[in-house]
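Q: Can I see a sequence and its folded structure?
A: Here is a first one.
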Amino acid sequence: MFKNRVEAGKELASHLLKYKSENGIVLGLPRGGVVPACKVAKALNWPLDVFISRKITAPLNPEYAIGAITENGLLELNDELISELPDIDAEYIAHEIKHQKEEIARRKELFRNGRDLPDLKKKTVILVDDGVATGFTLLAAINSLRKLGAKKIIAAVPIVPKEIKKAFNEKVDQFIALKTPEVFFAVGEFYEEFPQVEDEEVIKILQKK
């Protein structure tokens, strides 16, 4: 059990100090991932930024991901899952993609004043989130960072289901996970304090970086 995202970030940082001498950047998945990412960046004395990856959600259940789309347009869909769920057709998916693209544009303007990511070529990228449930947003982000030419990708999260971590191990150069439970219901159950992170908090963290 983690006290909060700050303490989880400090613990993650202690496992990442070996990368301190490398040319790198820490990217937090907003909004919740920016809080622990800040602690990692501070410990390594690396620049901090955000990478925006948004869930494509199922009808009537905004927490249930059927895919994800990233700020550089990479789309990941779970076709098998989509085929098993009622009320999902091409029109719904197109509408959801459009909605998430609009939210990505809003966040990019808000968190980075509309600018693109810095050049990631020859860089070690540490991608941080506050936890992983289905893994779609993280997977889409990792695949996007590969396309952007990152030299090395390390995923770092406080909590991820054991089976999902196994699936991700071969997709990154290293996957740091502090807890990998076999029984998992939600990320928040592993935190004593897990309030929603608001836009204003993300902006404040990025301004202090």
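Q: Show me another, different protein.
A: A second, unrelated one:
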Amino acid sequence: MMVRILLIANRKTTIDSLKRLIHTDDIIFLEASNQRSALQLARLEAPDLIILDTTSTRLGGTRLSRDLRRLLDAPIIAIVREEQDATELGATDYLIKPYTGCQLLNSVCQAMQYPRELMVGPISLNLRQRCVYAPHMTGPQPLNPKLFALLRVLIHRQGQIVTREQLMAEVWSTDFMEDTRTLDVHIRWIREIIEPDPALPLYLTTVRGIGYRLALPIGCPTP
């Protein structure tokens, strides 16, 4: 199976060096030298792994890493200048410059063990193909970027109440709360996909005045 790796660095020499260190016949390399092309490739190609050089001030690496995390769940290896919290970067792992080829390969191997599917009970979200499946459905249902991002946030926090403010911030990158009808519409669309009866939701419930919760109904066995 071919693996798609997105390499992001503002210098072609850095990208070429990364390719030499991890090249194998089953890897397809995608290359980006700026934020715009990186985000575009992430949306269109859904890479299996991202390696991002955050040391370039032109790339705005830390912010770009967080933007990429909002788009997809692929593991991100950040290249940094000094030790820091990978979670703050929105990354799965990080390497401090200068790093060895062995360190890079080890990080890549560990990252490729990253889960490709998120589940809540019988509902599964395929992170690679960006589709969702539930037993009552005839087959996997592809999701547009906002529905995918919204469902991903809810599954990541399954069993927890996620406020409307949190969803607007994480999915739409805004704190403007005067009009949240777009959130309501997307919640309705998700229910129409994952619920056996959208009018009587079992999994995605409303917590009145606060937000939403995605969880198994009481008494429902786990798969």
